Amino acid sequence: MLNITKNTNGTALTIGLEGRLDTVTSPTLEGELKTDLNGVEELVFDMEKLQYISSAGLRVLLSAQKVMNKQGNMVVRNASDDVKEIFDVTGFSDILTIE
Amino acid sequence: MSVKELTVVANTDNLSAVMAFVDERLEELECSMKIQMQIDIAVEEIFVNVAQYAYQHLSPEKRAEGQVTISVEDFQAPLQVAITFTDSGIPFDPLAREDPDVSLSVEQRQIGGLGIFMVKKSMDSMEYAYKDGKNILKFTKEL
Question: pTM, whole model, 2 decimals?
Fold first, then answer.
């Protein structure tokens, strides 16, 4: 289960993720990002309530990062220690901006 | 020590049933949230791998019958679990694949192979065998 909340402020978009970003839920986020990122210059993923991320979720974050590299910047906020450890193991700590 | 087993059709639609089966056992064993998440990731990555590749050479009708059995065994001193995936699909050793380069830049990063790499990094041991027409993949983790 994944709940996605969005908050737009001009060209800034904050996406809150709650629950699990896995093989089953990642396609939903991926589909929404396809249209949501149009015109966005500042993208924030708020992961305070994200409990779990697998490689399917990492894949979506990587493609979002690639899009944002062309049109602005992307930040990951409030990730739990467990999620941060996944970013460390996979080298995602080096390619994402984690605050 | 006990062994619990679940057999399902190898389809990602069954992922939540597989996760529920594994999580129930881990909760009984009073596994920490951190380790449960690591094991969940390992289970998801392996299960999805089997669901996507093991029976792809078959016709859609046969593919829809392709099964995978997941067993969870626990051991004492120290408390640990061994989780085994057994399928009758094409021989495939996920451990033979080269690890992805996790130091590449965002533009060069390839996502393929990352799932198995995460499992290798987070579990204590991982082994693969092909026996009697079956792929047997087993990993262990101390709780």
Answer: 0.91
Q: How many domains in chain A?
A: 1
Contact residues, chain A, for B121 at CB < 8 Å:
89
Asked whether the beta carbons of residue A59 and residue B111 sit closer than 8 angstroms, the reply is: yes
**CATH code at B46?**
3.30.565.10
Tell me the per-residue pLDDT of B122-142, one tens digit each, with 9 for 90 and over: 999 999 999 999 999 999 999
Amino acid identity of B40?
D
The model's confidence at residue B99, banded by pLDDT at 50, 70 and 90, is confident
Q: With CA atoms as reference, report the closest residue to A86 among A65, A66, A58.
A: A58
More confident residue, B2 or A42: A42
Helix orientation angle between A55-71 and B114-122, rounded to the nearest 10 degrees = 120
Number of structural domains found in chain B: 1
Residue A14: CATH number of its domain: 3.30.750.24
